């Protein structure tokens, strides 16, 4: 099999795996077909870029498995005019997917190294609608608020108050919540005129949401 055919075959299997796990939104599938996961994975895990599995990245963090990225993105119901805040840039892969669907993406990470490396990949891929910042994401980005959509890629015990406050009326936030790293649920919060509605989506496992900036040696 030629190298080109092999890549096409792996991409087809990749998309099939996404569909079989419940990622059915056409816009999300198109975005995930368009954005290659390869550049976001460094070192000796790079040959596993098309597997539906989480992989370790720098600073003790992980890149989520693609089906979870797809399901979280799908749950956000992003429209092309939306401004999205992502808390937890990590490898940058999730933000790159969001950039295909939204008007603007703000992504923050407590590790400067991760934010810097992700920003370099965004430039390389010419993803010009992503703003990458090093900040304590649990406080959101008050200067840019309110947001149409908020995605949190680390688990908190409860949805952080500052993030709830930065959601527009009619806005949606998707995040994992749970008191331990073994029992977590992915939830969707929709803000209405009168308060917040909560939907439990599925069990997940994410790194904890930690306050403060990270030391890059961590």
Main sheet makeup: 7 strands, mixed
Q: Summarize model confidence as the mean pLDDT.
A: 90
Strand content: 25-35%
What is the molecular shape?
globular
Radius of gyration: 16 Å
Taken in chain order, the helices and strands follow as HHEEHEHEHEEHEEE
Tally of separate helices? 6
**Structural category:** alpha/beta
The count of strands amounts to 9
- Strand arrangement within the widest β-sheet reads 5-4-3-6-7-8-9
Describe this structure in words.
This protein has 218 residues and is of the alpha/beta class. The protein contains six helices and nine strands. The protein starts with a helix and ends in a 14-residue tail after the last strand. The mean pLDDT is 90.
Task: Give me a quick take on this structure.
This protein has 218 residues and is an alpha/beta fold. The chain has six helices and nine strands. Strand 8 and strand 9 (195-204) form a beta hairpin.
Layout of secondary structure:
Blueprint (H helix, E strand, L loop, with lengths): L2 H18 L5 H9 L20 E2 L5 E2 L2 H11 L6 E5 L5 H7 L4 E6 L2 H13 L5 E5 L12 E6 L8 H5 L1 E11 L6 E9 L2 E10 L14
Parallel strand pairs: 3-4, 3-6, 4-5, 6-7
Antiparallel strand pairs: 1-2, 7-8, 8-9
List the main descriptive attributes of the protein structure presented here.
globular; single chain; alpha/beta; two-stranded antiparallel sheet; 9 strands
């Amino acid at each position: 099999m030629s190298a080109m055919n092999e890549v096409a075959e792996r991409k087809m299997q990749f998309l099939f795996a996404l569909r079989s796990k419940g990622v059915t939104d056409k816009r999300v599938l198109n975005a995930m077909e368009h954005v290659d996961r390869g550049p976001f994975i460094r070192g000796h895990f790079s040959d596993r870029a098309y597997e539906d599995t989480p992989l370790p990245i720098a600073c003790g963090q992980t890149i989520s498995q693609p089906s979870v990225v797809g399901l979280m993105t799908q749950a956000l119901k992003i429209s092309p005019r939306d401004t999205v805040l992502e808390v937890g840039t990590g490898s940058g892969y999730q933000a790159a997917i969001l950039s295909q669907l939204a008007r603007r993406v703000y992504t923050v990470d407590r590790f400067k190294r991760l934010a810097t490396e992700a920003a370099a990949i965004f430039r390389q891929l010419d993803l010009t609608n992503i703003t990458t910042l090093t900040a304590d994401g649990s406080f959101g980005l008050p200067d840019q608020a309110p947001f149409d959509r908020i995605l949190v890629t680390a688990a908190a015990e409860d949805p952080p108050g500052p993030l709830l406050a930065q959601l527009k009326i009619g806005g949606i936030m998707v995040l994992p919540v749970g008191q331990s790293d073994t029992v977590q649920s992915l939830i969707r919060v929709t803000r209405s005129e009168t308060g917040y509605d909560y939907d439990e989506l599925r069990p997940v496992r994410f790194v904890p949401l930690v306050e403060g900036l990270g030391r890059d040696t961590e």
